[in-house]
């Protein structure tokens, strides 16, 4: 009996592990990266980025992105530590439907300052920043997808989260969810992602329907 319980526990543990980093896949795989437990270390590809058209007049879609795919509503978060060096070095979460519809959010190094940065793209990209008054050793970024919106939050302690963006994204559409780094100006830098976790959320419209139509 003990052997059976241990076997079931082991299988359960393996099942949990199978849903973590090892089962994800690359878009624009970088030359150097490694997974150690729940941590992804990435050497960000030099001269790579995600951006479409607006302000700068070019489109690029060539930075490393390590992702899994979800079709419903969810919460995702990760801790990010980066060795940012030059202008526009950035790392964070990315939620992507296709090359014309995505959100990337995290830390971006601009003019010697750390910025909480969000880019939302629907055919053309926009960019919003919250400038920090000092360097931070790490940051947690969290995104919550509900109905046709994605709320993006940041935290410095994984306890208190502050919203940094609310953006529209089509609902009922599968989305690639994962870890992104970009280095438009430089020769690359190292970034570490820890504790990446996606939590399924019950579909809000369905839950509202079930509540209105509860059996009595």
Structure write-up:
The chain is mainly β and 216 residues long. The chain has one domain (23-212): Jelly Rolls. Helix content is 12%, strand content 53%. The protein is built from two helices and 16 strands. The protein has helices spanning 2-18, 204-212; strands spanning 25-27, 32-36, 39-43, 50-52, 59-61, 65-70, 73-82, 89-98, 101-110, 113-122, 124-131, 139-146, 149-155, 162-168, 175-182, 190-201. A seven-stranded antiparallel beta sheet has the order 1-6-15-8-9-10-11, with no helix packed on it. A hairpin with a 6-residue loop joins strand 4 (50-52) and strand 5 (59-61). The radius of gyration is 19 Å and the shape is globular. The model is unreliable at 1-18 (pLDDT under 50).
